[in-house]
Amino acid sequence: ESVGGPAGPINALDQVFADPQVIHRGMRIDRPSAAAKGGTIPGVRTPIIIGGRAMAAERPAPRLGEDTAEILREIGEG
Fold this sequence. Notes:
By secondary structure, this protein is of the alpha+beta class. It has one domain (1-56). Helices cover 23% and strands 18% of the residues. The chain contains three helices and four strands; from the N terminus they run ααββββα. Strand 1 and strand 2 form a beta hairpin. It is extended, with a radius of gyration of 18 Å. The mean pLDDT is 88.
C-alpha cells in the first residue's frame, strides 16, 4: 500500500463467507462433491456478471483422467 499497489486482506475460508460483499452479492456457491463431508464443498463464484447473469462453472473440475477417453476420441486418437 505504501507504494500505491493494490492490496487487501487475506481471509480464512470462514471469513470469506462472512464478508458483507460476498453475502450481499450472493457469491457463495456449494458444489457437489462425492468426496466431501455432507456431499458439497463451498466456494465463491466469480464476481463478473454479464447480461445480468452471474458466471458459474457448469460442473466441478474433472478428476485426473476422467475426461481422457472423451478427449482422445475428439482428436481421433481413441
